[in-house]
User: Fold this.
Amino acid sequence: MSKVTKKIANLLLHTLSGVVLVAILLILGLALAFSLPRVQTFVAEKATDWLAEECDVRVSVGDISLENISRLVAEEVYVEDLAGDTLLWVSKLTGKIDRKALLSEGRFVPYDVKVEDAKFYLIEEGEGGNNIDKLILHIESQFPADTTASGGRFA
Assistant:
């Protein structure tokens, strides 16, 4: 192998190792930042503000944390129905987030969601259905789904 080829190979190896090191440091930095209570509170506030704005429903989350770098954990999740009554209270909600959808499409797509100690408050509201039906119809009107592409109600 010539000296030029060795120098190019050495340069590529150093560059690649630098990129890998930066990626690892970025992931560790993100995990460390998420372990700080101030960051968790900030993320919880931003997430609930976004949900409240998008769905036009009051939502609150006591704490959000990152577990094992890949699982998002939300504690003390509270959701109101359209009448302002309690609809849902969850002690602990965990789930993974589709990183590809988040990074490439800017969409938040949870999967493998697990709920611990949840309480639904179903209120029958005459012929209009119940509070959950009304909330689902309201959210569907906010986010019209393309049912031809996904085959489901929520895309």
Observations:
- The two ends are 55 Å apart (CA to CA).
